[in-house]
Design goal:
The protein is α/β, with parallel strands linked by helices and 229 residues long. Helix content is 44%, strand content 20%. The chain has ten helices and eight strands. An eight-stranded mixed sheet has the order 3-2-1-4-7-6-8-5, sandwiched between helices.
Amino acid sequence: MNCQRCSPSVSVIVPVFNECDNLPALLAHVKNLAALQVILVDGGSSDGSQQLLAESGLTWLSSRPGRARQMNAGASQATGDVLLFLHADTRLPEHSLALLGDGLDNSNRVWGRFNVSIAGASPWLKCIAFMMNQRSRLTGIATGDQAIFIQRRVFESLGGYADIVLMEDVELSKRLKCYGPPVCIRQKVITSGRRWQKNGVVKTVLLMWWLRFAYWCGVSPVRLARWYS
C-alpha cells in the first residue's frame, strides 16, 4: 500500500445546542463517516438533546455554551491528525474524509474547507452559496458552514478558537492564513437554509454583510452577537 495515498486520521467535532429535532438525522450522518472519532459537544441544551446524545452510543461531552468554547472542548479530547469542525445543521459530501486527505496531501497545506450548498426552496440560496464559495477562495477566509478542517498540531499551536461569541471562524481563518491559504474542496457540504427561510433571504444577507463589515471595522463580537440573535 502506498502510504502517501492513505487518508489521515480525522476527528470530527460537532457543537450542539438545542438541536433535538435535528439530532436524529445528524447522528445517522456522523455514524456513517469513516472517522477515527466523532465528538459531539453540548453547550447546555434544555430541549432533550442531551438524552439523545447519551442514547446515541457516540462520544459526547458538555461544555459551557458558545460554539468556540464547545469546539475547543471537543478538540481537547481529539486524537486524530486532522480536526474537522462540523456544524450540527451541515452534512458532508460522500467520501469527504478521503477528499480532505487528498486535498491536504496534494497541496502540502495545513487547513482547508469545502464548498457549500444551502438547502432551501428560494432560488437565491444557490446564488448566495456561489458567492460565499467565491469570496472564500479569493480572500482565504472560511466560515463554519464550510466544514473547516485543520491539522491538529497547527490548531494546537494557535491555541484553538478565540473565546468570542461570534466570528470565531473568521478570526481563526485570519491566523491560519499565516500558514498559507486553505485547501478549497469543490465538492459541497449541504447546510440548512433555516435562518434564511425564517428571517427572509434579503434581510439575512444584508445582516451578514453588515456583521462582517462591522467586525472588520473593530466592533466587538459581543455587540455583533446581540445584532445577530
